[in-house]
Amino acid sequence: MDVLEDGLCFVCGAENPIGLKASFVVDRDTRSAVCRLQIPKNFQGWKDVVHGGILATLLDETCIYACRSIGNSFVTAELNLKYKKPVPVETEVVLKAKIVEEKRKVLIVKASLEIDGQSYAQADAKVFRMDESAA
To answer: Where would a tag sit more exposed on the chain, N or C end, judged by fewer CB atoms within 10 A?
Structure first.
């Protein structure tokens, strides 16, 4: 199966009119990715709290961007989350992910969502490499 980009990704797609338009900084040396953004109020669950599914989506995407430090096409095979604190809407969050292990076509990635240096959510992902090329 080919995995193709078309600019409509819900998280990072510049052409998605209802997306988050997140922008990631990828570091090839540390095999990591970072993103800073404010999550708009229209992505809340409870009043003034970001919906947990949106947080899962952001952590998943951050893991994929960390993997993009070493290649081009990846898909998530597993995502395990730990929600630690409610995340307020319209507050700057910092998403970070780093590859911690690589086994052939499977990468193990750890991610976090932080506000002011405090962890609000964490994720462990198993990511499958779809291509053979290195970035």
So the answer is: N
pLDDT in tens, 50-103: 999 999 999 999 999 999 999 989 999 999 999 999 999 999 999 999 999 999
Considering the entire predicted model, what is its pTM?
A: 0.93
At 124 the three-state DSSP class reads strand
Q: Any idea what the CATH number is for the domain that residue 102 is in?
A: 3.10.129.10
39 with 22: CB under 8 angstroms?
Answer: no
Closest residue by Cα to residue 121 from 70, 65, 49 = 49
pLDDT (tens digit, 9 = 90+) per residue, 99-128?
A: 999 998 999 999 999 999 999 999 999 999
Domain that holds residue 57: 24-129
Structure-token pair, residue 113: 């969502």
Q: Which residues are within 8 A (CB) of 28 and not within 5 positions of it... i.e. 6 or more apart?
A: 69, 70, 135
**Residue 90 placed within a domain:** yes
Query: Domain for residue 15, yes or no?
Result: no
Whole-angstrom Cα distance, residue 4 to residue 1? 10
Both tokens assigned to 67: 């993997």
